[in-house]
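Take a protein:
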Amino acid sequence: PAVKNELKGKKILEKLNGGQGSLDELAKTFGTDAVVSSSSDLKLNSNALPSVGLDPVAVGKAFSLENGKRTAPFVGENGVLI
């Protein structure tokens, strides 16, 4: 299962890396499995995202961004995130 998830993550990254536009536009071009959500009460000592689950790397990336910026697509613990 881990190898299967890794390969699926790579395929999703390939599809998303060329994408332009807002997160909603990227989600529409990706398909119905894409979800756009936000959290206004995320804390630095948290290790999970409300809609994603346990993913300390994603939390760290979120706090390393400037306000209004987004990361490049990356494979997290529970999916591919931006």
Q: What stands out?
A: The radius of gyration is 13 Å. The longest strand covers residues 74-76. The mean pLDDT is 88.
